[in-house]
Design brief:
By secondary structure, the chain is mostly helical. The protein folds into 3 domains: 1-35, no CATH class; 45-143, Tyrosine recombinase, N-terminal domain (DNA polymerase, domain 1, Orthogonal Bundle); 152-292, hpI Integrase, Chain A. 45% of the residues lie in helices and 7% in strands. Strands 3-4-5 form a 3-stranded antiparallel sheet, with no helix packed on it. Strand 4 (213-216) and strand 5 form a beta hairpin.
């Protein structure tokens, strides 16, 4: 059926029946509900898929729209087109249990977060008189923060493997099939702490050699941010710039495709390095290590070299130093040094006269 709401919005929805007589009865029922809404101000029934569609429509320009759409696909498959007024926290908890059989708890939490945001959008932006069942539902606990880092020696091996990849038989790949991007990406990430999306979207117009700063456009917060360039990072960027001048001077990206391929032309932005990165890890025997762990490695090296958590927080561009505290355990020597610098011993002298003050000796 297709009909127009009193607000003017055109709605198309399945009646979920193949019986024409039943379909007519359902349409008549809907016409009565719309009449009661217009004449008596009765709140109409709201349905799940319409709520989800409204939310996705509002978020089309969001940089994480693909993640939202992916989550919405699983939510729609489970809740179908349920009437929102009948959804309770037990239904959300049932979704968590069902989805938890196939994905990790963190994924379930993120998808329920999308569900909750869709409810709130309907309530706040569309003024629907409904309740958000996510607020009282029991959802999986937030997993403990994971910090995986590699040593300087392992990092050197990883970069070398990315620069000279081997095939499945352990033979070097032909030079024409080897990209310079993976090795340079790894080295730049280890020296800047930038996220994958930040480096892959980096344009030359945002690289300032005079001030030794990168200006990042696609950040997690959505705001422009700057990152200092150390000497190692500067050498990588100079190498990338010279390579670009030789191969594709018109490309605006620091990391670009070095030849035409299906779905991408020479000079286009590289969207992902997952396969080449994973191949390099396998080649040198580094396990349980992701591209994002390059950022963890950057932070871990700083902390172990004596950089304060506050400074690391600024370099990682965390909104709060609390987010950086996951690296605190990597600097136990600093904590020992901190208490060691107190340098005094307290001895309390007890007096027989309770009215006398207790003396504190400093030695």
């Amino acid at each position: 059926m297709s009909y127009q709401e009193p607000s003017g919005r055109q709605v198309r929805r399945s009646l979920k029946t193949r019986n024409k007589q039943i379909a007519k009865q359902l349409i008549a029922k809907l016409e009565l509900e719309i009449h009661e809404e217009v004449v008596f101000g009765k709140e109409p029934k709201r349905y799940f898929k319409e709520m989800l569609a409204n939310y996705l429509e509002a978020k089309q320009q969001s940089k994480d729209f693909e993640r939202l759409r992916h989550a919405a696909k699983h939510l729609a498959a489970f809740f179908d087109d349920r009437e929102l007024g009948k959804l309770r926290e037990k239904d959300v908890e049932k979704y968590c249990r069902s989805r938890g059989n196939t994905v990790k708890a963190g994924t379930v939490r993120r998808e329920v977060g999308v569900l909750s945001a869709a409810f709130n959008h309907a309530i706040i932006k569309h003024h629907w008189v409904i309740q958000n069942p996510c607020t009282k539902a029991s959802i999986p606990r937030k997993p403990k923060s994971r910090v995986r880092w590699i040593t300087v020696a392992e990092a050197s091996q990883l970069i070398a493997a990315a620069r000279s990849p081997l095939d499945q038989q352990g033979q070097p790949l032909p030079a024409r099939n080897v990209s310079t991007a993976p090795a340079d990406f790894i080295e730049l990430a280890l020296n800047t702490g930038c996220r994958k999306s930040e480096l892959l979207s980096l344009k030359w117009e945002h690289v300032d050699f005079s001030t030794r700063l990168l200006r990042l456009e696609e950040t997690k917060s959505g705001d422009w941010q700057t990152v200092p360039i150390n000497e190692a990072a500067r050498q990588v960027l100079k190498r990338r710039l010279a390579f670009r001048a030789t191969l594709c001077p018109s490309s605006p990206y620091v990391f670009f495709h070095e030849k035409n391929r299906p779905g991408a032309k020479l000079g286009d932005r590289i969207q992902n390095l997952r396969r080449s990165f994973a191949r390099a890890c396998v080649q040198v025997g580094i396990t349980n290590f992701t591209i994002h762990d390059l950022r963890h490695t950057f932070a871990s090296w700083l902390v172990m070299n004596g950089t304060t958590l506050f400074e690391v927080s600024k370099l990682l561009r965390h909104s709060s130093v609390t987010m950086t505290e996951i690296y605190a355990h990597l600097a136990p020597d600093q904590l020992h040094d901190a208490v060691g610098k107190l340098g005094f011993t307290a001895q309390f002298q007890h007096s027989d006269d309770d009215k006398k003050n207790v003396a504190l000796k400093m030695v």
